[in-house]
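Project standup — Tuesday

K.O.: blocked on the structure for the chain from last sprint. Re-posting the sequence here as requested.
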Amino acid sequence: MKKTLCAISILLLITLPTIPTVFANPTSIGLGIGWVNSPYKSYSSKFYPIPHIDYDNGLFFIDDLSAGIYVYNTNNQSLSIGVSYLSNEFKPHDSNNHQLKLLDSRHSTLLAEIEYSIDTNFGSFSSSIGADILNESNSLLANADYSIPYMQGNLVIVPTIGINWANSKHNDYYYGIPHKESSRSKLHYFNADSSFTPYAEIGMQYLLTDNISTFGSLHIDKLTGDAADSPMVDNSTVTSIYMGISYKF
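H.V.: unblocked you, prediction finished:
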């Protein structure tokens, strides 16, 4: 939700006088539910609860599953460092494919991130670099995206396009087949290289009252390169949906 809320702030920059950065953004809490399909073969789609926490005092922020501090923060630009949860995982028992059931698990992890964002009259641009800090995947990830909001009454719609880059260690952990697993499962050995993943997203927020809002997003990733070519994968288009309700203090 951070990118959606960041893009919504463009509307405030366009329509309101300059607001000193010492004023904190409104705090909101809520609960959402997500659904995601999987790129893995015969792997079950999942529903999962997601807590919604949005707190930002201009120095420190919590945004759902990420948190950090601002190194630099003005009315329309910010540079932050923080941590976020990387939800990628593979559980053999969640696949109905008999070969994938014989593979090892791949675990989610935490990323240390540096992110830069800028809001302009033409949209919001952001980029980030993140690295695995739990030594699960040794992932190194980079992201760049562009979003622009549309407001009609109490409804805000924020379309976003972007691209992710993942290093070879990330892809090899989540999509590779080492020799030991290849012998056990009879899947051919596969050493995955780095790849890009373009994506599109549309986020929405509707204000029910002065304090209560509903929100949601639709996010589509398109795996390419070795991530898409992995013997574990039969679906290169990964879709996730997120919706919920929040209360603003």
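K.O.: great, moving the ticket to review. Confidence is low (pLDDT under 50) at residues 1-24. The longest helix spans residues 2-15.
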